[in-house]
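Quick illustration, no need to memorize.
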Amino acid sequence: MAFLPRRGASMIRTTAFLSGDTMRFIYFVGTAGSGKSSLIYAFQEWMTLQGLDSVIINLDPGVEHMPYEPDIDIRDWVRVDDVMEEYGLGPNGAQIVAADMMALNAKDLAESMEQFRTNYVLVDTPGQIELFAFRQSSEVIMEELGKGDSCLVFLADPNLCKSPSGFVSAIMLAATVHFRFSIPFFTVLSKSDLLKEEELEQITEWSESTDALYAALTGKIDPRAVLGIELFKALEAIGAYRRVVPASAVEPSGLEDIYDMVQESFEGGEDLSDD
């Protein structure tokens, strides 16, 4: 199927693109409702203000509403509604089949990127994390687009992170996704504006101090706390325990921190903005 640019998409992106540079793919991954699409939109708006250009790829074949107009959209090739109708499947079955079918269009996605000249590609993944993180199609797409020039931003749910055990669960899920893809990754506390100030301070302390998290886990000894302590020890032992950066698409906040982490991964901290 020939690629047709979506309405509003620029055919050539040139702002802040350095000749000879490769495209950097930033995959935003998280559980349903973690705010991936909203954060991508806010991040792109922030990048534009800094003189940094980017394009957005939507990899969710079932999404109905987005806060942005994607430059490349997997729904031009695969749509969940069409899969439901053609194969007589329910929503869940169609989501899985559509996710697997995306691999068949990996080359089309890569070819459609050839019309753009930009340093950054923001990739919005399916709302259900398992449809991307734990399906083979995601590996095929990453390899086709350029896995060596990719990093992953994992969005942690703020409500889950309010408790010590929930925080450890979020870090464990992030580590699992990292293990699945083995590319540089960063954990972002999404929708941080929904947290009270004291809750945000507590979560930030847990992410920056292993002693603080350990103390919180051991404060109440029950089966869940014991499991949390063991998981925490395992995460620390394998180097998966990392700082969690708060971010909000509403305020907005934390966007510069995300950019700094991305740059540290790709350029060793070199800034590609116009400043």
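The domain at 24-208+244-261 is CATH 3.40.50.300 (Rossmann fold).
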